[in-house]
Design a protein that fits this description.
Helices cover 31% and strands 27% of the residues. The protein has 14 helices and 24 strands. It has a 4-stranded mixed beta sheet, covered by helices on one side. A 4-stranded mixed beta sheet has the order 2-15-17-16, covered by helices on one side. Strands 4-5-3-14 form a 4-stranded mixed beta sheet, covered by helices on one side. By secondary structure, it is of the alpha/beta class. The protein binds ligand EPZ.
Length: 418
């Protein structure tokens, strides 16, 4: 059994270089199979979701070289057009390979990704979009099989600005013989990064970052080197650690524009936040103000992935805060764990009422997804006593060296293998 042990002591002080973005590198790795050559990605985070994605690329026929945070993918020979169930079930976001495999091989099959700790993770928007683009999609026995006979120009209007569905359409359309426009597209920075990477390979895509994206398919893409954007959610996590311990934390190698909604909430909590060209620094003051209402929304609204970290911070704020979770059905699983630490949180469906308490206390707590795991570590930083955070495998999915970075900021933290 492995756990992260934290003894809540003084303030975090110092700076941390932020890792590459998990949610940018995964679609970018899927995109590498669109180039029948060698593609290089720099600033890839060393996390387990990347390891699983590399296993999928190898299964498809790619040759992989990894040198520190650089990954080189040789996709000259693609020998499979399906993802085996054991790999699919290890990482539900492998659905992001669907569009790219069809674009390269004109066929694709994989099992349904199924739900996860955050609740059901349907893919109806992905399927609806691919059907509109002329893909023949059959579903049955938990499997989805796709076959492309003829491309169709299409305008795809997403019922919800789904990040994954937007990315799948971009990956499908980049290497195609059709013109696609996506309306109500997701606007996350990771979508812009994918557009920049695909265009670097020779694609003709415009509009990423807005809700209308246009794709003029091309017949061939070419080798390219790309640097993955920083992880805005990891940055938010460390800033929350600074705030909850009354410290001073600077996150470096970031793009502050990628998480303006988070820094704005930290200011609303009464914290001093300084933003530079490639850094954000929070100088906390010990009185954390409560916030009347935070709603999670698609970008540029407050990101659902940063919600757990803010929930930990508001657990020790002065006053009562309300959080409305609009993206996932089960993002509040962490509340039960924080309550074990002395938090006063009432959840009812998508709403959490957080009455700030003076202090949190150590308790054995269990991560239920990667963001709740990191948020429990954040809470433990200010809790009295020795907290043990279990299910560290969730944290490893998206955070590179979380405990080492926090230790370097002065936390009394270690990873223990029992
Ligand atoms: C991406 O997930 C991220 N994952 C998530 O980060 C992030 O929370 C989410 O976008 C929202 O920003 C990756 O990029 C790998 P969605 P994705 O499709 O693409 C519903 C993390 O912690 N929906 O935008 O799966 C869905 O159920 C992870 O880093 C449909 O109903 O998110 C959800 O309620 C967690 N039908 C909402 O839309 C569909 O076909 C948002 O989903 C697709 C989605």
């Amino acid at each position: 059994m492995e756990y992260i042990k934290v003894i809540g002591e003084g303030p975090l002080l110092g700076s941390v270089d932020i890792q590459g973005s998990k949610n940018a590198v995964l679609p970018a790795l899927a995109a590498t199979i669109l180039n029948e050559g060698e593609t290089v990605l720099h600033n890839c985070p060393d996390i387990s979701d990347v390891k699983i994605t590399l296993d999928i690329l190898k299964f498809l026929g790619c040759k992989i070289k990894k040198e520190n945070h650089t990954i080189i993918v040789d996709a000259k020979n693609i020998v499979n057009n399906y993802i085996p169930t054991e790999l699919m079930t290890k990482m539900r976001s492998s659905i992001i390979f669907l569009g790219a495999i069809i674009a390269r091989t004109k066929e694709a099959s994989m099992c349904f990704p199924g739900g996860c700790e955050l609740g059901p993770r349907p893919i109806d928007l992905h399927i609806k979009a691919l059907k509109a683009l002329g893909v023949d999609v059959t579903e049955g026995n938990g499997y989805i099989k796709c076959k492309l006979d003829n491309y169709k120009d299409a305008q795809v209007h997403l019922d919800f600005p789904s990040v994954g569905a937007t990315e799948n359409i971009m990956l499908f359309g980049a290497l195609s013989d059709c013109v696609i426009s996506i309306e109500n597209a997701a606007r996350e920075p990771e979508i812009e990064d994918l557009q920049n990477f695909l265009n670097g390979m020779g694609a003709k895509i415009s509009g990423a970052g807005s809700s209308s994206i246009r794709i003029n398919g091309v017949k061939k893409l070419h080798d390219f080197e790309h640097t993955i954007i920083p992880d805005r959610i990891a940055a938010a996590t460390y800033l929350c650690g600074g705030v909850i311990t009354g410290g001073c934390v600077e996150v470096k190698k970031v793009n502050p524009n990628h998480f303006g909604a988070v820094t704005s909430v930290l200011r609303e909590c009464g914290q001093y936040v300084e933003e530079g060209k490639d850094y954000v620094c929070v100088k906390a003051n010990n009185k954390i103000k409560s916030i009347d209402l935070i709603r999670t929304l698609p970008h540029p609204g407050f990101p659902t992935d940063a919600q757990s970290g803010i929930l930990s911070v508001l657990s020790v704020a002065n006053g009562t805060s309300i959080i409305k979770e609009n993206i996932f059905q089960q993002r509040f699983k962490i509340a039960d764990e924080l309550i074990k630490m002395g938090a006063d949180i009432n959840t009812d469906g998508q709403v959490a009422v957080v009455k700030g308490v003076k202090k949190l206390y150590a308790s054995p707590v269990y991560a239920s997804d990667l963001r709740s795991g990191a948020a429990l570590v954040v809470a433990a930083l200010c809790a009295e006593g020795e907290t043990k955070v279990f299910n560290t495998h969730f944290i490893d999915r998206g955070y590179e060296n979380l405990h080492i970075n926090l230790k370097n900021l002065g936390a009394n933290i270690e990873r223990v293998k029992e």
